Amino acid sequence: HYVVICGYDMDTDEFEIRDPASS
User: Of 6, 3, 8, nearest to 19 (Cα)?
Assistant: First the structure.
């Protein structure tokens, strides 16, 4: 199980994290 940090979100001031296992 792992997560992918795909980029920095300027709007929420945090990294966008996607979970390949849940999709």
Answer: 3
